[in-house]
Design brief:
CATH class of the largest domain in chain B: Alpha Beta
Shape of chain B: globular
Oligomer: heterodimer
Bound molecules: flavin-adenine dinucleotide, FE2/S2 (inorganic) cluster
Number of strands of chain B: 12
Number of domains of chain A: 2
Order of helices and strands of chain B: EHEHEEEHHHHHEEHEEEEEHHH
Helix content of chain B: 25-40%
Radius of gyration of chain A: 16 Å
Strand order of the largest sheet of chain B: 4-5-8-6-7
Shape of chain A: globular
Structural class of chain B: alpha+beta
Helix content of chain A: 25-40%
Structural class of chain A: alpha+beta
CATH architecture of the largest domain in chain B: 2-Layer Sandwich
Number of helices of chain B: 11
CATH topology of the largest domain in chain B: Uridine Diphospho-n-acetylenolpyruvylglucosamine Reductase, domain 3
Number of helices of chain A: 5
CATH topology of the largest domain in chain A: Ubiquitin-like (UB roll)
CATH architecture of the largest domain in chain A: Roll
Amino acid sequence: MAKVPVQFTLNGSEKAEFIESGTTLLHALRDKIGDTSPKGGCHQGTCGACSVIIDGELRLSCLTLAETCNGADIRTTAGLAEAGVLHPLQRAFLDAFATQCGFCTPGMIMAAKVLLDRTPNPSREDVVEALSGNICRCTGYEPIIQAVLTAARANSQNAA
Amino acid sequence: MSLALQTFSTVKDANAALQASGTRYLGGGTLVVRGANEGDVSVSSLVRVTEPSLSAITVSGDKVQLGASVTMAAIARHPDLAAVAPAARAVGGPAIRNMATVGGNLFAPAPYGDFAVALLALDATVTAETGETPIEDFLTGRDSSRAIITAVEFSLPKADSFHFLKVSRVKPKGISVLSIAALLQRTADGTVTSARIALGCMADRPMRAKAAERALLGCKLTPQEIAPALAAAGEGISPITDPIASTWYRAEVLPVHLGRLLLG
Ligand SMILES: Cc1cc2nc3c(=O)[nH]c(=O)nc-3n(C[C@H](O)[C@H](O)[C@H](O)COP(=O)(O)OP(=O)(O)OC[C@H]3O[C@@H](n4cnc5c(N)ncnc54)[C@H](O)[C@@H]3O)c2cc1C
Ligand code: FES
Ligand code: FES
């Protein structure tokens, strides 16, 4: 099948690839561009492990065709750490044991990031709602919720 | 998977391309791309349209027009659409709501289609290039519909007249055991003068509870007076069975939840 060009910004750097038409963004990111932080859990929209942020909105990369992202700004967990320093969400996930096998973690962190970008001081209910499309088989969710609340507090202390 | 995507800037050109066999329209893709990922080979080509009017929300007076590409998230956060926001918020988790469109919800098979249930209660009009269709007729004929839906229109319900309820087992967000939307006009003393009730998961697509609607006329919303409507709610239903609930279970709990909706 004919290949088509796609071009977008991934974590701030320009990417351009030729892909087969109909390729999902998840496939393009992992197997073409080499960003394996979004995970393919179900390929059905159910688990949230493939969540990425496209133009500021949380989306499922397994259900998004890469061609529809031309010109978009795409953010993944791989782009969060700056100069080797973990993002407050990553730090909080580690400290709170919010990651066990780690498969859900990049999706959880993306879902939490869009929440904190819009709602810097979320309630527990806000966090539960924001993570409601993400499944974790290991932690029982409570450590994840606590980690997001901790990261929010750390952010607001830094801002103060 | 081998899918080819064609992008058009006008609905007209896309409609022409959709006539080819194996071709399907791509809305937000939450059902159609999922199908492809699952190995649905009936679709070999997808068509999408980038016309900005498809993503427009227009509210003038009590008339609302939602472009077919408007997402559930856009409805949920729109300041003038608070009346229907609960139905939009009932769809999926945050990422799904950022992708799921109004147009796609009209075609979503049960247990999906929660927003379409609300639109059915609101007696929305479904617009395509070929003209406008009342939603009830659209839903009946949707399997043979080939034209791109461009918009839906409805009158914004007055506060207190519109009620929506979705019951799911996975909290806070799960797919529907059932969903119910009701548009009720009442006199000052609370007597029901008109009722339009739509049900989700009670057939393969949203349907009206016409017997219950008739039984509600002239009633006040008290447990005694609504009892006949609840008893009639199951008339004509054939609920789906899926991993969430069986046909039997859905039929059993429908009157309970309709009662809660009406008395709530
Ligand atoms: C994990 C998950 C959870 C979900 N939860 C819910 C839920 O709680 N409630 C719910 O109602 N749904 C749910 N859905 C189903 C789905 O996301 C929604 O119904 C959504 O609104 C479908 O819209 P879409 O734009 O993604 O459709 P698409 O997948 O793009 O399209 C679906 C069908 O409609 C056709 N179509 C779409 N738009 C048009 C148009 N404008 N004109 C003509 N044909 C069109 C397509 O050709 C296709 O056949 C869920 C899906 C997933 C994957
Ligand atoms: S892989 Fe995309 S939601 Fe599971
Ligand atoms: S840590 Fe294993 S799935 Fe969440």
